[in-house]
Write a structure and sequence with these properties.
This protein is mainly beta and 107 residues long. It has one domain (25-104): Immunoglobulin-like. It has one helix spanning 2-10, and strands at 28-35, 46-49, 55-57, 63-67, 76-82, 89-94, 97-104. The strands form two sheets. Strands 3-2-5-6 form a four-stranded antiparallel β-sheet, with no helix packed on it. The protein has a three-stranded mixed β-sheet with strand order 4-1-7, with no helix packed on it. Strand 2 and strand 3 (55-57) form a beta hairpin.
């Protein structure tokens, strides 16, 4: 090892250190959609994020998980949830939000 260091100094060889890229904070929006008074899961509800063209659909048990890492421009997003037979839901959410509960009201 000492010979390598001396050789490198004598001939002006530099050894670079590889740096690892900084990891982004995961911006996850995950939670459950339920009926407001009964807390029964509301499946197949459409979840959309303002400023993002895609929308997502909740599972039959009301759960949803959206990874917005690299997509969301800020850590605050406007969430819109809709389902036939229910009033639309809108809220501003601070990311990450792993246990977000959406309570929908019947029309």
């Amino acid at each position: 090892m000492l010979a390598l260091v001396v050789f490198g100094v004598a001939f002006g060889i530099s050894v670079g250190v590889t740096s690892h890229p900084t990891h982004e904070t995961a911006l996850i929006l995950a939670g459950t959609i339920v009926e407001e008074t009964s807390n029964v899961a509301v499946g197949q509800a459409r979840v959309s994020i303002a400023s993002i063209e895609s929308s997502y659909v909740s599972e039959d048990n009301g759960n949803f998980r959206i990874d917005l890492t690299g997509i969301a421009k800020t850590e605050r997003v406007r969430v819109h949830v809709s389902k036939d037979g229910y009033l639309p839901y809108d809220a501003t959410v601070e990311l990450p939000a792993e246990n977000f509960v959406v309570r929908l009201k019947h029309v």
